[in-house]
Amino acid sequence: MKPPQAILVPTDFSDFSDDALELAYDIAKQYNAKICLLHVIEIIRQCTVDYCLDIQTVESLETQTLTASEDLMKKQIERVIKTKDVEITTDIRKGTPYREILNEQQSKNIDLIVIASHGRTGLLSHLIGSVAEKVTHGAKCPVVLVRPKH
Q1: What is the DSSP letter of 118?
Q2: DSSP 3-state of 87
């Protein structure tokens, strides 16, 4: 495997994502690579089975979610990365998380994905599947899966 030049780190702002960002930082520092920190906002559905929100409410929720996500990304970088010796860019996409992660990988020529695993096992993992599992199967580059430390 050639040394990575662009590392994608999907985040949901959890402690697990902090661990993935920390590992990606160590790899990026070692190989003089760049990090792209990505958060995916799931689409807010205007209607459910028997209730609909008006479009202004949906747009307001999306704007609030975007603003909060931008703030959380800045805080995560400040919390995890103590120095500024690695270039980190941020991106927020709207859609299905695993699909947007794979789209980001292709559109930005990412050559390594470092993603957190929440460690689901058993029947639950088979019923709902995990974003990390779908990314691992669909990625066109190596994927490092970061497991919980505890």
Answers
A1: -
A2: coil
Other beta carbons within 10 angstroms of residue 48's beta carbon come to 8
Give residue-wise pLDDT tens across range 87-139: 999 999 999 999 999 999 999 999 999 999 875 555 444 444 589 999 999 99
User: Which residue, among 128, 70, 59, 66, has the nearest Cα to 98 in the 3D structure?
Assistant: 128
Rounded distance between C-alpha atoms, residue 27 and residue 31, angstroms:
6
What pTM did the predictor assign?
0.87
> Kind of pairing, strands 88-94 and 34-41?
parallel
Strand intervals (E) in the chain: 6-10, 34-41, 88-94, 112-116, 143-146
Report which residue type is found at 23: L
Instruction: Give the H/E segment covering residue 22.
Output: helix 15-31
